[in-house]
Write a structure and sequence with these properties.
By secondary structure, this protein is of the alpha/beta class. It has two domains: about 20-180; about 225-480, Rossmann fold (3-Layer(aba) Sandwich). The chain has helices spanning about 1-15, 50-65, 65-75, 80-90, 110-145, 155-170, 195-220, 225-230, 255-275, 295-305, 325, 370-380, 380-390, 405-410, 430-440, 470-480, and strands at about 20-30, 90-95, 100-105, 175-180, 235-240, 280-285, 310-315, 350, 355-360, 395-400, 415-420, 445-450. Strands 5-12-11-6-10-7-9-8 form an eight-stranded mixed sheet, sandwiched between helices. Helix 1 runs antiparallel to helix 7 (about 195-220) and helix 3 (about 65-75) packs across helix 4 (about 80-90). The radius of gyration is 46 Å and the shape is rod-shaped.
Amino acid sequence: MATTILAPLACAAWLAARSPTYTATSQLLIKPLPATDRTFLGVEFIQDSGDPTRTAQTAASIVDSPEAAAFAARRLHSDWTPARMRSATSVTPEGQSNIIDIEATAARAEDAARVANAYAAAVLTARAQLLRPQIRAAIERTKARLRTLDPGSPAAADLIDNLNQLESVKDGRDPTLVRLGSAAVPASANGPSDSLLLVLAALAGLTLGATAAILLELLDPRLRDEEEAVDLYPLPVLARIPPHRPRALPRRTGPMQAAVLPEGFRTLHVQLTQNAAAGQAIMITSASAGDGKTTTALNLARTIAAAGQRVVILDLDMRRGGIATALGLAPAPGLLTTLDSPGRLETVLQLLPDTPLIRVAATGAETPDPVRVEQLFSQLPQILDEAKTAGAFVIVDTAPLGEVSDALRVAGHVDDIVILVRPGHTRRAQFAVMRDLLDRAGYAPTGLVVIGSSAKLPSSSYYYGVSGRGADEQASRTRRIGIAGR
Protein backbone atom coordinates (compact mmCIF):
# COMPACT_ATOMS: atom_id res chain seq x y z
CA MET A 1 0.00 0.00 0.00
CA ALA A 2 2.82 2.38 0.84
CA THR A 3 4.62 1.92 -2.47
CA THR A 4 1.35 2.11 -4.42
CA ILE A 5 0.62 5.48 -2.80
CA LEU A 6 4.17 6.86 -2.72
CA ALA A 7 5.06 6.02 -6.33
CA PRO A 8 2.37 8.29 -7.89
CA LEU A 9 3.18 11.01 -5.34
CA ALA A 10 6.85 10.86 -6.27
CA CYS A 11 5.91 10.88 -9.95
CA ALA A 12 3.66 13.91 -9.41
CA ALA A 13 6.48 15.74 -7.63
CA TRP A 14 8.85 14.91 -10.47
CA LEU A 15 6.33 16.08 -13.06
CA ALA A 16 5.88 19.35 -11.18
CA ALA A 17 9.64 19.93 -10.99
CA ARG A 18 10.68 18.85 -14.47
CA SER A 19 10.87 21.18 -17.47
CA PRO A 20 8.96 19.88 -20.49
CA THR A 21 10.83 19.49 -23.76
CA TYR A 22 9.51 19.75 -27.30
CA THR A 23 10.87 18.26 -30.50
CA ALA A 24 10.32 19.61 -34.01
CA THR A 25 11.46 17.92 -37.22
CA SER A 26 12.67 19.42 -40.47
CA GLN A 27 13.31 17.15 -43.46
CA LEU A 28 15.68 17.05 -46.40
CA LEU A 29 15.14 14.93 -49.51
CA ILE A 30 18.15 13.14 -50.99
CA LYS A 31 18.32 13.12 -54.80
CA PRO A 32 21.67 11.47 -55.51
CA LEU A 33 23.35 11.70 -58.90
CA PRO A 34 23.85 8.47 -60.85
CA ALA A 35 27.26 6.95 -60.31
CA THR A 36 27.94 7.25 -64.09
CA ASP A 37 27.14 10.99 -64.26
CA ARG A 38 30.20 12.92 -65.50
CA THR A 39 28.57 16.34 -65.70
CA PHE A 40 29.57 17.49 -62.24
CA LEU A 41 32.96 15.85 -62.13
CA GLY A 42 35.03 17.48 -59.38
CA VAL A 43 31.98 18.82 -57.54
CA GLU A 44 31.07 17.12 -54.21
CA PHE A 45 27.47 16.38 -54.98
CA ILE A 46 25.92 13.26 -53.42
CA GLN A 47 26.16 10.28 -55.75
CA ASP A 48 24.25 7.00 -55.69
CA SER A 49 26.42 4.25 -54.19
CA GLY A 50 24.08 1.47 -55.27
CA ASP A 51 23.08 0.84 -51.62
CA PRO A 52 20.24 3.18 -50.49
CA THR A 53 21.15 2.77 -46.81
CA ARG A 54 24.77 3.64 -47.40
CA THR A 55 23.79 6.60 -49.57
CA ALA A 56 21.47 7.91 -46.83
CA GLN A 57 24.17 7.51 -44.16
CA THR A 58 26.65 9.41 -46.35
CA ALA A 59 24.16 12.22 -46.81
CA ALA A 60 23.45 12.32 -43.05
CA SER A 61 27.15 12.69 -42.27
CA ILE A 62 27.32 15.61 -44.74
CA VAL A 63 24.28 17.30 -43.16
CA ASP A 64 25.53 16.81 -39.57
CA SER A 65 28.56 19.08 -39.89
CA PRO A 66 30.24 21.72 -37.70
CA GLU A 67 29.87 24.24 -40.53
CA ALA A 68 26.10 23.80 -40.60
CA ALA A 69 25.90 24.17 -36.81
CA ALA A 70 27.96 27.38 -36.98
CA PHE A 71 25.74 28.88 -39.70
CA ALA A 72 22.59 27.92 -37.73
CA ALA A 73 23.94 29.50 -34.51
CA ARG A 74 24.68 32.77 -36.36
CA ARG A 75 21.23 32.69 -37.91
CA LEU A 76 19.54 32.34 -34.48
CA HIS A 77 21.75 34.98 -32.80
CA SER A 78 20.89 35.21 -29.04
CA ASP A 79 23.03 32.89 -26.87
CA TRP A 80 23.21 30.04 -29.36
CA THR A 81 26.64 28.58 -30.03
CA PRO A 82 27.74 25.89 -32.50
CA ALA A 83 28.25 23.45 -29.60
CA ARG A 84 24.78 24.14 -28.19
CA MET A 85 23.29 23.81 -31.65
CA ARG A 86 24.86 20.40 -32.17
CA SER A 87 23.68 19.18 -28.76
CA ALA A 88 20.13 20.38 -29.45
CA THR A 89 19.85 18.75 -32.89
CA SER A 90 20.16 15.26 -34.27
CA VAL A 91 20.40 14.10 -37.87
CA THR A 92 19.14 10.65 -38.78
CA PRO A 93 18.04 8.90 -41.99
CA GLU A 94 14.35 8.03 -41.92
CA GLY A 95 14.16 4.25 -42.17
CA GLN A 96 14.99 2.88 -45.63
CA SER A 97 13.80 6.02 -47.40
CA ASN A 98 15.77 8.83 -49.03
CA ILE A 99 14.68 11.37 -46.41
CA ILE A 100 16.86 12.83 -43.66
CA ASP A 101 15.23 14.03 -40.43
CA ILE A 102 16.68 17.01 -38.59
CA GLU A 103 15.22 16.92 -35.06
CA ALA A 104 15.61 19.88 -32.71
CA THR A 105 14.75 19.82 -28.99
CA ALA A 106 14.00 22.88 -26.87
CA ALA A 107 12.11 23.89 -23.74
CA ARG A 108 9.49 25.75 -25.81
CA ALA A 109 7.59 24.40 -28.79
CA GLU A 110 8.22 27.53 -30.87
CA ASP A 111 11.96 27.38 -30.17
CA ALA A 112 12.12 23.74 -31.25
CA ALA A 113 10.55 24.56 -34.63
CA ARG A 114 12.77 27.64 -35.04
CA VAL A 115 15.95 25.66 -34.34
CA ALA A 116 14.98 22.84 -36.74
CA ASN A 117 14.22 25.29 -39.55
CA ALA A 118 17.38 27.29 -38.89
CA TYR A 119 19.51 24.16 -39.03
CA ALA A 120 17.91 22.92 -42.27
CA ALA A 121 18.50 26.31 -43.90
CA ALA A 122 22.05 26.40 -42.51
CA VAL A 123 22.81 23.01 -44.09
CA LEU A 124 21.98 24.36 -47.55
CA THR A 125 23.97 27.56 -46.86
CA ALA A 126 27.01 25.57 -45.75
CA ARG A 127 26.70 23.33 -48.80
CA ALA A 128 26.51 26.38 -51.10
CA GLN A 129 29.63 27.87 -49.54
CA LEU A 130 31.48 24.61 -50.07
CA LEU A 131 30.22 23.86 -53.59
CA ARG A 132 30.39 27.34 -55.14
CA PRO A 133 34.17 27.40 -55.76
CA GLN A 134 34.07 23.77 -56.95
CA ILE A 135 31.33 24.60 -59.47
CA ARG A 136 33.23 27.69 -60.73
CA ALA A 137 36.35 25.60 -61.24
CA ALA A 138 34.31 22.95 -63.12
CA ILE A 139 32.84 25.66 -65.37
CA GLU A 140 36.31 26.98 -66.21
CA ARG A 141 37.55 23.47 -67.01
CA THR A 142 34.57 22.83 -69.28
CA LYS A 143 35.04 26.12 -71.12
CA ALA A 144 38.73 25.43 -71.64
CA ARG A 145 38.01 22.03 -73.16
CA LEU A 146 35.24 23.49 -75.29
CA ARG A 147 37.68 25.93 -76.85
CA THR A 148 39.78 23.04 -78.13
CA LEU A 149 36.90 21.36 -79.95
CA ASP A 150 35.19 21.98 -83.25
CA PRO A 151 31.98 23.89 -82.37
CA GLY A 152 29.92 21.62 -84.58
CA SER A 153 31.23 18.31 -83.26
CA PRO A 154 29.13 15.98 -81.05
CA ALA A 155 31.72 16.29 -78.26
CA ALA A 156 31.35 20.05 -78.28
CA ALA A 157 27.56 19.67 -78.07
CA ASP A 158 27.93 17.42 -74.98
CA LEU A 159 30.27 19.91 -73.31
CA ILE A 160 27.86 22.76 -74.02
CA ASP A 161 25.09 20.76 -72.32
CA ASN A 162 27.34 20.08 -69.33
CA LEU A 163 28.25 23.75 -69.18
CA ASN A 164 24.60 24.77 -69.13
CA GLN A 165 23.94 22.39 -66.18
CA LEU A 166 26.93 23.78 -64.30
CA GLU A 167 25.80 27.34 -64.97
CA SER A 168 22.36 26.48 -63.49
CA VAL A 169 23.95 25.69 -60.09
CA LYS A 170 26.82 28.20 -60.12
CA ASP A 171 25.25 29.93 -57.08
CA GLY A 172 26.15 26.81 -55.07
CA ARG A 173 22.69 25.32 -54.87
CA ASP A 174 22.97 21.56 -54.19
CA PRO A 175 20.51 19.69 -56.42
CA THR A 176 21.09 16.48 -54.45
CA LEU A 177 19.62 17.94 -51.21
CA VAL A 178 16.16 19.47 -51.30
CA ARG A 179 14.37 20.92 -48.29
CA LEU A 180 10.85 19.55 -47.71
CA GLY A 181 8.95 22.47 -46.23
CA SER A 182 9.33 23.94 -42.76
CA ALA A 183 9.20 22.23 -39.37
CA ALA A 184 5.81 22.51 -37.68
CA VAL A 185 5.45 23.73 -34.11
CA PRO A 186 4.92 20.59 -31.93
CA ALA A 187 1.48 20.40 -30.30
CA SER A 188 2.61 18.55 -27.15
CA ALA A 189 5.70 17.93 -25.09
CA ASN A 190 7.90 14.89 -25.53
CA GLY A 191 7.00 11.64 -23.84
CA PRO A 192 3.69 10.26 -22.60
CA SER A 193 1.07 12.45 -20.94
CA ASP A 194 1.20 13.25 -17.24
CA SER A 195 -1.91 11.20 -16.54
CA LEU A 196 -0.41 8.15 -18.23
CA LEU A 197 2.80 8.55 -16.24
CA LEU A 198 0.83 8.73 -12.99
CA VAL A 199 -1.07 5.56 -13.89
CA LEU A 200 2.17 3.79 -14.81
CA ALA A 201 3.78 4.98 -11.56
CA ALA A 202 0.85 3.57 -9.57
CA LEU A 203 1.14 0.25 -11.41
CA ALA A 204 4.89 0.19 -10.85
CA GLY A 205 4.39 0.96 -7.15
CA LEU A 206 1.75 -1.77 -6.88
CA THR A 207 4.06 -4.27 -8.59
CA LEU A 208 7.02 -3.30 -6.43
CA GLY A 209 4.96 -3.39 -3.26
CA ALA A 210 3.40 -6.75 -4.10
CA THR A 211 6.82 -8.19 -4.91
CA ALA A 212 8.27 -6.86 -1.68
CA ALA A 213 5.31 -8.20 0.31
CA ILE A 214 5.69 -11.65 -1.24
CA LEU A 215 9.44 -11.66 -0.55
CA LEU A 216 8.87 -10.56 3.04
CA GLU A 217 6.26 -13.26 3.42
CA LEU A 218 8.59 -15.92 2.04
CA LEU A 219 11.64 -14.72 3.96
CA ASP A 220 9.86 -13.90 7.22
CA PRO A 221 11.19 -16.31 9.88
CA ARG A 222 8.04 -15.89 11.99
CA LEU A 223 4.79 -17.82 11.88
CA ARG A 224 2.27 -15.88 9.84
CA ASP A 225 -1.00 -17.09 11.33
CA GLU A 226 -2.80 -19.74 13.29
CA GLU A 227 -3.26 -21.97 10.24
CA GLU A 228 0.48 -22.19 9.66
CA ALA A 229 1.08 -23.11 13.30
CA VAL A 230 -1.52 -25.91 13.13
CA ASP A 231 -0.01 -27.15 9.86
CA LEU A 232 3.42 -27.40 11.51
CA TYR A 233 2.09 -28.96 14.71
CA PRO A 234 -1.39 -30.52 14.33
CA LEU A 235 -2.80 -29.78 17.78
CA PRO A 236 -6.23 -28.55 18.83
CA VAL A 237 -6.54 -24.83 19.44
CA LEU A 238 -7.74 -24.56 23.03
CA ALA A 239 -8.30 -20.81 23.05
CA ARG A 240 -7.75 -17.68 21.02
CA ILE A 241 -6.71 -14.69 23.07
CA PRO A 242 -7.12 -11.22 21.50
CA PRO A 243 -4.19 -8.79 21.62
CA HIS A 244 -3.61 -7.33 25.07
CA ARG A 245 -0.94 -5.56 27.01
CA PRO A 246 1.85 -7.81 28.31
CA ARG A 247 1.98 -8.92 31.93
CA ALA A 248 -1.54 -7.87 32.93
CA LEU A 249 -5.08 -7.50 31.81
CA PRO A 250 -5.63 -4.22 29.94
CA ARG A 251 -6.75 -1.30 32.02
CA ARG A 252 -7.87 1.07 29.30
CA THR A 253 -10.07 -0.75 26.88
CA GLY A 254 -13.67 -0.90 25.79
CA PRO A 255 -16.23 -3.16 27.48
CA MET A 256 -16.27 -5.64 24.60
CA GLN A 257 -12.48 -6.01 24.59
CA ALA A 258 -12.38 -6.32 28.39
CA ALA A 259 -15.04 -9.02 28.17
CA VAL A 260 -13.58 -11.03 25.29
CA LEU A 261 -10.08 -11.18 26.80
CA PRO A 262 -10.97 -13.07 30.03
CA GLU A 263 -13.52 -15.09 28.08
CA GLY A 264 -10.60 -16.63 26.17
CA PHE A 265 -9.01 -17.68 29.46
CA ARG A 266 -12.34 -19.01 30.74
CA THR A 267 -12.52 -21.16 27.62
CA LEU A 268 -9.01 -22.44 28.34
CA HIS A 269 -9.88 -23.02 31.98
CA VAL A 270 -12.99 -25.07 31.18
CA GLN A 271 -11.15 -27.31 28.72
CA LEU A 272 -8.26 -27.97 31.08
CA THR A 273 -10.12 -28.51 34.33
CA GLN A 274 -13.63 -29.77 33.58
CA ASN A 275 -12.67 -33.42 34.07
CA ALA A 276 -9.71 -32.86 36.36
CA ALA A 277 -9.37 -33.77 39.95
CA ALA A 278 -7.77 -31.52 42.53
CA GLY A 279 -4.03 -31.29 42.23
CA GLN A 280 -3.79 -30.91 38.44
CA ALA A 281 -0.46 -29.53 37.12
CA ILE A 282 -0.50 -27.44 33.93
CA MET A 283 2.73 -26.52 32.15
CA ILE A 284 2.82 -23.36 30.04
CA THR A 285 5.58 -23.17 27.43
CA SER A 286 6.27 -21.72 23.99
CA ALA A 287 8.77 -21.80 21.17
CA SER A 288 10.19 -18.29 21.45
CA ALA A 289 10.83 -15.77 24.19
CA GLY A 290 8.21 -13.07 24.38
CA ASP A 291 5.36 -15.24 23.13
CA GLY A 292 3.28 -14.50 26.25
CA LYS A 293 3.92 -17.44 28.59
CA THR A 294 4.07 -15.44 31.80
CA THR A 295 1.04 -13.31 30.85
CA THR A 296 -0.96 -16.41 30.03
CA ALA A 297 0.07 -18.19 33.24
CA LEU A 298 -1.00 -15.20 35.34
CA ASN A 299 -4.31 -14.66 33.57
CA LEU A 300 -5.16 -18.35 33.64
CA ALA A 301 -4.41 -18.37 37.38
CA ARG A 302 -6.68 -15.37 37.91
CA THR A 303 -9.43 -17.08 35.95
CA ILE A 304 -9.18 -20.27 38.02
CA ALA A 305 -9.12 -18.21 41.22
CA ALA A 306 -12.20 -16.31 40.05
CA ALA A 307 -13.99 -19.68 40.01
CA GLY A 308 -13.18 -20.06 43.74
CA GLN A 309 -10.31 -22.54 43.34
CA ARG A 310 -6.82 -22.28 44.79
CA VAL A 311 -3.83 -21.92 42.45
CA VAL A 312 -0.08 -22.20 42.91
CA ILE A 313 2.17 -20.67 40.25
CA LEU A 314 5.70 -22.11 39.94
CA ASP A 315 8.15 -20.00 38.00
CA LEU A 316 10.50 -22.61 36.56
CA ASP A 317 11.96 -20.30 33.92
CA MET A 318 15.26 -20.37 35.77
CA ARG A 319 17.08 -18.31 33.14
CA ARG A 320 14.71 -15.37 32.87
CA GLY A 321 11.91 -15.70 35.40
CA GLY A 322 9.34 -12.96 35.10
CA ILE A 323 6.48 -13.84 37.45
CA ALA A 324 7.70 -11.75 40.40
CA THR A 325 8.42 -8.76 38.17
CA ALA A 326 5.04 -8.99 36.44
CA LEU A 327 3.22 -9.07 39.78
CA GLY A 328 5.39 -6.44 41.43
CA LEU A 329 6.36 -8.77 44.27
CA ALA A 330 9.14 -7.83 46.63
CA PRO A 331 12.40 -9.81 46.35
CA ALA A 332 12.13 -13.01 48.35
CA PRO A 333 13.78 -16.44 48.58
CA GLY A 334 13.07 -18.48 45.48
CA LEU A 335 12.62 -22.09 44.53
CA LEU A 336 16.32 -22.86 44.76
CA THR A 337 16.21 -22.34 48.51
CA THR A 338 13.96 -25.39 48.84
CA LEU A 339 16.93 -27.58 47.95
CA ASP A 340 18.45 -26.84 51.32
CA SER A 341 15.19 -27.53 53.17
CA PRO A 342 13.21 -30.31 51.47
CA GLY A 343 9.50 -30.14 52.07
CA ARG A 344 9.53 -26.44 52.74
CA LEU A 345 7.98 -25.09 49.52
CA GLU A 346 5.44 -23.42 51.78
CA THR A 347 8.16 -21.03 52.98
CA VAL A 348 8.76 -19.53 49.51
CA LEU A 349 5.14 -19.20 48.44
CA GLN A 350 3.92 -15.60 48.33
CA LEU A 351 0.28 -14.56 48.46
CA LEU A 352 -1.08 -12.03 46.01
CA PRO A 353 -2.58 -9.14 47.97
CA ASP A 354 -5.52 -8.72 45.60
CA THR A 355 -6.11 -12.47 45.05
CA PRO A 356 -5.61 -14.57 48.19
CA LEU A 357 -6.40 -17.79 46.32
CA ILE A 358 -3.20 -17.42 44.23
CA ARG A 359 0.24 -18.13 45.65
CA VAL A 360 3.48 -17.76 43.75
CA ALA A 361 6.87 -19.44 44.00
CA ALA A 362 9.26 -17.24 42.03
CA THR A 363 12.78 -18.00 40.87
CA GLY A 364 14.28 -15.80 43.58
CA ALA A 365 16.75 -12.97 43.50
CA GLU A 366 19.87 -15.16 43.56
CA THR A 367 21.79 -15.90 40.38
CA PRO A 368 20.91 -19.45 39.31
CA ASP A 369 23.78 -21.92 39.55
CA PRO A 370 23.56 -24.61 36.80
CA VAL A 371 24.39 -27.36 39.29
CA ARG A 372 21.68 -26.26 41.71
CA VAL A 373 19.21 -25.86 38.84
CA GLU A 374 19.86 -29.48 37.87
CA GLN A 375 19.28 -30.52 41.48
CA LEU A 376 16.00 -28.57 41.44
CA PHE A 377 14.78 -30.39 38.33
CA SER A 378 15.76 -33.73 39.88
CA GLN A 379 13.57 -32.90 42.89
CA LEU A 380 10.71 -31.61 40.73
CA PRO A 381 8.30 -34.50 41.50
CA GLN A 382 8.50 -33.75 45.23
CA ILE A 383 8.14 -30.00 44.62
CA LEU A 384 5.05 -30.57 42.47
CA ASP A 385 3.54 -32.84 45.11
CA GLU A 386 4.04 -30.11 47.71
CA ALA A 387 2.51 -27.53 45.35
CA LYS A 388 -0.51 -29.74 44.71
CA THR A 389 -0.99 -30.07 48.46
CA ALA A 390 -0.86 -26.30 48.82
CA GLY A 391 -3.25 -25.61 45.94
CA ALA A 392 -5.83 -27.43 43.92
CA PHE A 393 -4.18 -26.41 40.63
CA VAL A 394 -0.51 -25.86 39.84
CA ILE A 395 0.51 -23.68 36.88
CA VAL A 396 4.14 -24.08 35.85
CA ASP A 397 5.73 -21.28 33.81
CA THR A 398 8.79 -22.61 31.92
CA ALA A 399 11.50 -21.32 29.63
CA PRO A 400 10.74 -21.31 25.87
CA LEU A 401 11.31 -24.87 24.69
CA GLY A 402 12.29 -23.76 21.21
CA GLU A 403 15.33 -21.98 22.68
CA VAL A 404 16.36 -24.11 25.70
CA SER A 405 15.46 -27.64 26.74
CA ASP A 406 14.57 -26.93 30.40
CA ALA A 407 10.85 -27.45 29.79
CA LEU A 408 11.51 -31.08 28.80
CA ARG A 409 12.59 -31.73 32.42
CA VAL A 410 9.14 -30.54 33.51
CA ALA A 411 6.95 -32.04 30.76
CA GLY A 412 7.09 -35.58 32.15
CA HIS A 413 5.72 -34.55 35.57
CA VAL A 414 2.66 -32.48 34.61
CA ASP A 415 -0.87 -33.36 33.58
CA ASP A 416 -1.28 -30.88 30.72
CA ILE A 417 1.16 -29.18 28.37
CA VAL A 418 -0.16 -25.93 26.88
CA ILE A 419 1.83 -24.38 24.06
CA LEU A 420 1.64 -20.66 23.39
CA VAL A 421 1.93 -19.42 19.81
CA ARG A 422 1.92 -15.77 18.84
CA PRO A 423 1.54 -15.24 15.07
CA GLY A 424 3.83 -12.54 13.79
CA HIS A 425 6.27 -13.15 16.67
CA THR A 426 6.88 -16.87 17.19
CA ARG A 427 9.88 -18.05 15.19
CA ARG A 428 9.08 -20.80 12.71
CA ALA A 429 12.40 -22.61 13.19
CA GLN A 430 12.11 -22.53 17.00
CA PHE A 431 8.51 -23.76 16.78
CA ALA A 432 9.74 -26.75 14.75
CA VAL A 433 12.53 -27.40 17.27
CA MET A 434 9.99 -27.40 20.12
CA ARG A 435 7.73 -29.80 18.23
CA ASP A 436 10.60 -32.19 17.47
CA LEU A 437 11.82 -32.20 21.06
CA LEU A 438 8.38 -33.03 22.42
CA ASP A 439 7.80 -35.72 19.77
CA ARG A 440 11.14 -37.42 20.42
CA ALA A 441 10.52 -37.33 24.17
CA GLY A 442 7.07 -38.87 23.64
CA TYR A 443 5.12 -36.01 25.23
CA ALA A 444 1.74 -35.13 23.72
CA PRO A 445 0.74 -31.49 24.35
CA THR A 446 -2.87 -30.82 25.26
CA GLY A 447 -3.19 -28.07 22.66
CA LEU A 448 -2.32 -24.57 21.46
CA VAL A 449 -3.31 -21.17 22.75
CA VAL A 450 -3.13 -18.53 20.04
CA ILE A 451 -2.12 -15.12 21.38
CA GLY A 452 -3.02 -12.03 19.39
CA SER A 453 -5.70 -13.71 17.32
CA SER A 454 -6.64 -11.58 14.34
CA ALA A 455 -10.24 -12.71 14.46
CA LYS A 456 -12.69 -9.81 14.69
CA LEU A 457 -14.45 -9.26 17.96
CA PRO A 458 -17.84 -10.94 17.92
CA SER A 459 -20.98 -8.92 18.36
CA SER A 460 -22.55 -10.53 21.40
CA SER A 461 -24.10 -9.60 24.71
CA TYR A 462 -23.22 -12.96 26.30
CA TYR A 463 -19.92 -11.76 27.70
CA TYR A 464 -19.65 -10.59 31.28
CA GLY A 465 -19.25 -6.84 31.32
CA VAL A 466 -21.18 -6.32 28.08
CA SER A 467 -24.92 -6.39 28.38
CA GLY A 468 -28.02 -4.53 27.36
CA ARG A 469 -29.11 -2.97 24.17
CA GLY A 470 -25.78 -1.22 23.45
CA ALA A 471 -23.68 -4.38 23.19
CA ASP A 472 -23.65 -4.59 19.42
CA GLU A 473 -23.03 -0.86 19.10
CA GLN A 474 -20.14 -1.12 21.55
CA ALA A 475 -18.63 -4.04 19.64
CA SER A 476 -18.92 -2.11 16.40
CA ARG A 477 -17.28 0.93 17.97
CA THR A 478 -14.49 -1.23 19.38
CA ARG A 479 -13.78 -2.66 15.94
CA ARG A 480 -13.74 0.81 14.39
CA ILE A 481 -11.14 2.22 16.73
CA GLY A 482 -8.96 -0.81 16.05
CA ILE A 483 -8.51 -2.19 19.56
CA ALA A 484 -8.87 -5.79 18.39
CA GLY A 485 -6.26 -5.51 15.68
CA ARG A 486 -3.51 -3.61 17.44
